[in-house]
Every structure is written in C-alpha cells, then in structure tokens.
Amino acid sequence: MKLKTALMGAVATFAVAQMAYADAHEGERGRDGEVNIIYWQAPSILNPFLSGGTKDIEAASLIIEPLARYNSSGELTPWLVEEIPTVANGGVSEDLTSITWNITPGLTWSDGTPFTSRDVQFTYEYCTDPEAGCAQLTKFDGVSSVETPDDLTVVVNFDSPTPFPYGPFVGGESPIIQAAQFSECMGARAPECTDENFGPIGTGPFVVTEFRTNDVIQLEANENYRDPNKPAFQSVTFKGGGDATAAGRAVMETGEFDYAWNLQLAPDVIASMEEGGLGTPVAGFGPLVERIMLNNTNPDPSLSAEERAVIKPHPFLGDPAVYNAMSMAIDRPLLVEVGYGQAGKVTCNWVPAPAAVNSDTMTCDTQDIAGANAMLDEAGYMDTDGDGIRETPDGVPMEILYQTSTNAVRQDFQALIKEWWSEIGIEAELRNVDSSVFFGGDPGSPDTFQKFYADVQMYANTFNGTDPQAYLGNGLCDKAPSPATQWQGENISRFCMEEYDALHAELTQTADAAERAEIAKQLNDMMVMNGGMIPLVHRGRLSAHANSLGGIDLNVWDSELWNIADWYRTGENR
Amino acid sequence: MLNYTIRRLVLSIPTLLFIALVIFLLLELAPGDPMGQMPLTIPDDVKQRMREALGLGEPWYTRFYLWLYQFFVVEPQYWIDGAFGTNFADGAQRIISFQSRSPVFDTIAERLPQTLWVVGMSYVVGVAIALPIGIISAYKQYSVFDQAGTFVSMIGFSVPPFFSGVLVIVIFSVQLGWLPSIYDTTHEVVDWETFKFQLQQMIMPVMVLALQTTAQVSRYMRASMLDNLGQDYVRTARAKGLTESVVVMRHVLRNSMIPVVTVIALGIPSIFGGAIITEQVFKVNGLGQLLIIALQGSDIPMVMTITFLLAVLIVMMNLIADILYGVLDPRIRYD
User: Fold this and answer.
1) Disulfide engineering: A427 pairs with which of A304, A399, A439, B45, CB 3.0-4.6 Å?
2) ipTM surpasses cut 0.90
3) Which residues 207-226 of B are in CB contact (within 8 Å) with A?
4) Residue B197 — φ and ψ, nearest 5°?
5) pTM of the model
6) How confident is the model at residue A13 (pLDDT cuts 50, 70, 90)?
C-alpha cells in the first residue's frame, strides 16, 4: 500500500514535471491579461500580522513576501535572499544562537525604493510590540534581537540554541513589510492604519489597486518586480465570499473564475463538477489530521467544573485494550471515501507529513471488529447485565460522550463511528457544537474543545511549515489547559508522560535533520500508542484551477498562491 | 401633525438607546469569540493578546459607553469633517471592525450601493408586479388569473432563495451559460455595453428576491381590495353610473392602499438589511453578506452598528407609516 502510493506519487510528479516543461513559455510581463481567483472565505485585511486567518495570509502573499519560503515539496527555498543559511555554509552560527540572511542585491519595493535589512528589522519590531496584538508572534519566539550590520545583511539572534532557526521571516505567515510605510503604525496604532493594512507595499508580483474588505481585491502587476518577464498576468481579480460549492462551480462548470481555493466538498460533488469539463481539482497533503482525542482526565459531570478537566485518570479510556479496540473498530478507508475522496488518506499517525517524519510503525487500514471484541473480552470488559454495553471490571458501563464541531462530514463520521463502537459494546452519545463556540476558546463556555467536557472529541489540527517541534510540544504535560491557565493550552487530551517530555526536550537540543525526524517519529508513536488520540484521516487541501491556467503547483506548506508569478495561460486559450 | 411628529421623534430616543443596550447585551451574552476563526496553529496566549488589542479586556459597560460615544459623537464629527473640510474629529478613534480593523462606516458605505441596486431594485420590481396582480386577482376573484396568482404567491412564499437562487444559477449560468453566477461588485456602468452587463448580473438576484416581495405584497393587496369591493360606497359609486375603471382605480384602490402602504413602508428597512441568503448565493457581497460574516466572526462593533442602524430605520419607517396614514386617510387625525 505504502510503496504503491509512493510509486504513484513519483509517477504523478514526473508527469507533472513533463507537462510543465511542455507548457513552459516565456514572454513579457502582463502578456496573459487577467486572472480571476475566488476564495469562498473573503479576505478581511491584507496585513497578516493583524489577522491569523489563512484567507488573509494567502491574499497578502500576492503582495508581500518572506525572506525564504517552502516550495510545494516542503523544502526551504530562498526567496528574497541569496541562499538558505545553514551551519554548513556558515549562515547559522556553530552554537545555533544566530542566523545570518544575505538579501539579494538590487531588490526594490513596488514603489521603487530599495528593499533593505532595515525593513526586515522593522517587521520584527512591528510584530513584537507589546501593544500590537500581533497574530504571528510565535514566529519570533526566542528571538532576542535582529541586527542589521549593513543594508543587505540581517542577523537574527536567539536567546538560546535554536536547532531550527527558520521561524522568523520564513513562510507566508512571516512576510516583510515596508518600514517607511508602517512606521506610524506601531503598537496600539496598528488598527488605525486602514490604508496601510488594506494596501501594503510589497516586493511581490502584484500591487493592490482596490481593496474592498470581505469582498474583492483588484491587483495589477508590480512594475518593479525582480523578474522583468513576470508575472504573466497583468491584473488579478481576487473575489471572496459565498460558499465552496459556488466557488467550485465558478471554476469547473461556468468558467467565470480561474482558481478556487480549498474546496471542502463531498467527493461526489467534486466529481460531478469536474464533469463540467472547464477545470481540474488538485490535491496536496500537509500535516492536517482529522483525529479523535481521548480524554485522559475524568469528565464525570458530577465533578465540579473546575475539577473535571484536571482529575485523572479516566475510568477506562486509559487502558490500552480500550483505545486500541476503539481504533481497530474504525473502518478508515470508508471514512476517507465518505468524507474526503481524493483529498484524504488513511493515517495512523499524528504527524503524517512531511514524509521524513511520517512514522511507519503502526498499521490501521483494515477494520477488525472481531479482534477488537476479543481484545476487550480478554481485558475483562464484559457485558454483565445483557444490555449490549460492556462494563468495566468495576461495573462502570462503557458509555462515552463523543463531541465535535458542527460540520456535515464530521456528523457523518460520528454516525459511522458510533455504529462501529456499538458493535464492540461501547455506547457513544453524540454531540456537536457550533465551530465558533467549539474553537472559540471562551473561558466562560463549557463547550470549548479546550475544556473537553466529553470523553472523546473529534477535530483536525495541523502546523505551519515543515518543522514539527512546536506541534509535538502539544503533548507536553505542562501544556494542558486548566482553570489555572484560564483554559489556555494546546495539550487538549491532557496526555502526560515523563518519557515524552524528556524526548521532546532532546528534540529541542538536536540540530541534525535526520536525527530530528527520528525523534519526531518516536514522539508521534508515543502519543498514539499511549492513548493520546486516535488518528483517522490525513486530510489534504483540494483546490481547483481552470484548464486554461498553467503553472499551478499546489503548495500546502506555504501560501497556495506562492508561485503566482509563474502562472500563465496555456496554448489555445491565450 | 407637526406636534405629533416631534413628540414621536423625542420618544424614539430612549427607545433607540434601550434597543442599543439590548443588542449589546445580547451580543455580549452570546457565545462566540472574535478569535474563534483563527487557525489552531496560533497559540492561546497570542490570541489573548490579540483580544486585548481589540479592547476586549475592558468591562462591558466601558465598551458600551465607548461605542455610544463613537457612534453619536466621533462618527458625526468625521462626517462633518468630510463634508466641510473641518477638523472636529482630530484623529479620534472611530468604530473599528474586529475583522478588518477598518472603520465600520466606511465598509457600510462601500456595501450600500450593491445592496440598494440589487435588493432595492428587487423591492421596486416586486411591488410593481405585485400591485396589478393583487388588484386583478381581487377584481376577478376565483378566475384563472386569480388562481394562477395565488399559485405563484404560494411558490414565492414557500420556496427559499437558497433553492430558487441555486436553481436559476444551474439553469442560466451552468446549463445555458447566459448569465454570470458571481456578481462583480467592482463593475462600473459607463456605456451601453457595461449597462448590459450590469443588467445581466443583476437580473437573477433581483428576480429571485422580487418573487418573494411579490408574493407577500400581492396577497395583502388582494385581501385589502376584496375588503373594499363589498363596501356600500362602492355600490353607491356604481349606482351613480361611474365607469368600472373609475370605481376600481379611484375609489376602491385608494382605500385599499392604506394598509398596503404600511406593509410596503415597513418592508423598506429590510432592504438596508440586505438579503443575507440571496447575497451569499449570488456573491453580491452587500450589507447582508457583511452582517452574516460579521456574525460568524463575532465582529461585535460591526454587528452592533449594522443592527442598530436597522433599528433606527425601523423606528423611522414606523413613524413615516403612521404619518402616511394621516395623509391617506382623512378619518385619522393625530392632533
């Protein structure tokens, strides 16, 4: 299965590469006229530092750019710099406490002024201002200072050895803004700079001509873009709003738009749209995983609200026989087919991507109800009162509350999984909560996923970039949300294991990429095998482009529009 | 009449303040969080700092007072400055949306044209179709025309726009390819060609919305006409030897219009509320879409301002409808 997938992937990559060469063409800037992009979530602002929303970050990526970014295979690619600094080339200091970026000479902003290291330093100052409320603050975690020895050199100093120093100024979430434009917009004044936030000056292939918040953006090719032959399109219309169905229809059936982002639609809907013949869906896989989190605390409602999420352990979910049986009872290939089609894959891992950190220790692609039943029988969970629900050896019936956010696919999954679990004698009560409440993090609400007032809950999570260190930190004991932390924290299942904490500490000290990947795999296995979660589906991003649009290279590690400068119209449609 | 109007206007001030308080408290009590739509990759402490930067750290009464101050003092200052080039506002903080960090009124002003064009036009079209249908249906009660009118009204009442809208898109955009399915809000009418395009992109949303208005208003019109057609004064008019057209159009219609005018007037605020669902279906991105996106994102200043403006409109339209009563019906006098 794995080998076959890998081979098919290789064949597909090869085929795509062939096509790209066949279509490749050169010409002057703006030769292909207009390109229309539709995002069913409308961008609200073009300043990624004031909004963490993906829609805003991706829209802004047409205009402002980072020093380096990830390409579609998740590799770091120099963008506004000469090369990626490493210990080997001397760009990263031996003691791992500083990184030196060398800006490409001759770069200019779209207003014609030179792009200098001062702009990079300013971006750091802008985001880390204590009153700014910067959404990308974590990008600058551990940074003690940013120095500018000369106009083209930026030195980022960290307060401790940082084996992965590619956080600041890397990727679509951490672009560089112009010091001259934003100098009056520091700290508390940031929200007042509407003109700046709606029309940042950038180094990217396009400049904003009109921005209508939550509606539409009009852009023109940047006359000062570094490559004189790019972008191929003279203008971009970036429409937002509506729903994923309408966006897919506009690209694949009516042909009004050329690119539609993130079509979270049922596989059969996508297939019927594709029959429209005007566009093609493309899928890419980042580390997004739909999973069932197992509650490691006791969520008994008779405990007080403060105690429920703290008192351990759970009456039975902590037993390997129970969570392994629950996982074995799930038919993951069917879930993929029902919910995600070509935008989903079976996974047993918490961190299924990038490929280097995808552990192959576990298999879970076949359902085994009989095996699950046998496992529970052997562990002493028997149905003693004949009601079809097993009891623990202490006589606690195995009834669980299974919650998730309101979403058609998630409710389908709930119904299917409830059925499978009932076949192994575990009764699940289903509950769904509106996603703005569930993910809202309001400490006053009992329904947030952080409080986890349920036995199991299902949602998806991911991380930005390709380094999983911070994401794996979500399994550390001290990251558990509790009343003492105002219910903030990322360790939702309240998983806690000394060995895990120790191994994660080792990861933060390791610089070698292969070793890091090995530790990441071990951490992944530890979390899944010790009852932190049941991974279900590795979810991809599915977007669609018009058949007449060439140069698309779907990137899930960075902005999807990362290479819009290379997009063009294909042959007959020009 | 003038006394009455002034009295009503003065009375509406405490009413509106009370409405503002109720809306604010409802939003305050409602679950939801402006950071709820942020990706999970942003940690909680960063979200907390973003909330504080939005002013959410303050107690609710401080924020309510601030909103009132901004709405009634700062914003008018900006309008005066904009109109006369003065500088009353002097850089004071305006009402800022949580989502876009831009002044709420700028966004509303940006959205108003689309909404007025599409929703307003549909209202005019709907009323223009509804009145004749209502009149003829009542005059020829139980005729084929009346039955057909009733049928169309029932469809208009019962078919929601998220069905009829998508249906017309599938027919006219996907199958026939005649009309665009996505409204271009940046389109400007400068010549005959662009006007034609504007018509093409407006016709579907306008007709889908007009169907609903038509259904509602034509039923009122028919019922009101039927009430009046049986009255003694109609028999008198006919006995005087007046022609049917004079009897129906002058005597009956005028009297029948009184309740219908109220219905129409009270429907006007809903134009400014936009058509949430229809705007979403056709991507018109007017006030309705603005409101629903703000609700989804818990953008309290935006929701608060739009709903309050709607409350003002409803109170005003009620007043206007009452005054129109006095104008249309000589039996009603307020002084």
Assistant:
1) A399
2) no
3) none
4) -65, -40
5) 0.82
6) very low
